Amino acid sequence: MSELVSTRIRNTAGKLGLPHLAETINEYTRRADEGKMGYLDFLDLVLSEELAVRDDRRFRQGLRLSRLPHHKTLDEYDFSFQPDLDPRKVKDLATLSFVDGKSNAALLGPPGVGKTHIAVALAVAACRAGYSIYFTSLDDMVRNLKAAEAAGRLTNKLGTYLRPSVLVVDEVGYQPLERAEANLVFQVISKRYEKGSIILTSNKTFSEWGQVFGDEVLATAILDRLLHHCEVISVNGPSYRLKNRLKAIERDNDVA
């Protein structure tokens, strides 16, 4: 390819919003020459590479906006440490069929068993698949909604939790809520019902949610909408954090 044509293609690619093509056109043509590609094969190569670059850019942007505390995957989860947890159930969730169906997923169990890890891994998978995601703890969500309500901006702030395809609500049950706070949670759950997916983690059984939300009737209304279309997974094994802490103590004792 002549330098004149190469320059013209780079300029055109830039105008079309294809900066990667503008930067790599010479590499593409080299690969085409080496592979003796026909015109259609060359076009397929360029379009496939550009799509992959665009998807990766969208994925990284989605993660940046998601407020996820980390970007762990299911491959990093130690299922062997939780022998009572069936990996197939978690991997079924990772197919994202529940997200496709605008259903929910609930991960229940004591602190430290990896509920948040699994929730984040599912969110990362959803982001990779092109879904918008947003992560919040329940306490943070309630605090932000209360502040917005006091400032007369509740409707606008609700959009933060209603717009994403997948909303991850972490640590449900760690702090009891007042009834007015629980009503704000109900608004989010109710407005997302059959319109978007929720992934939540909780250290409380559903029978304890009346205590969490300070009102049995309101808790029942929340659960009614949440559980109508929901996959529930219980993780009741030992704590990862305690395991790591015990190992550190053992090392210190060995040194001593």
From TrEMBL:
Record Pfam families: IstB_IS21
For this UniProt entry, the molecular function terms from Gene Ontology, in alphabetical order, are: ATP binding
What keywords are assigned to this protein?
A: ATP-binding, Nucleotide-binding
Q: Which residues form the AAA+ ATPase domain?
A: 101-234
Query: What biological processes does GO assign it?
Result: DNA replication
Give the similarity note.
Answer: Belongs to the IS21/IS1162 putative ATP-binding protein family.
> Can you name this protein?
AAA family ATPase
The organism is Streptomyces mangrovisoli
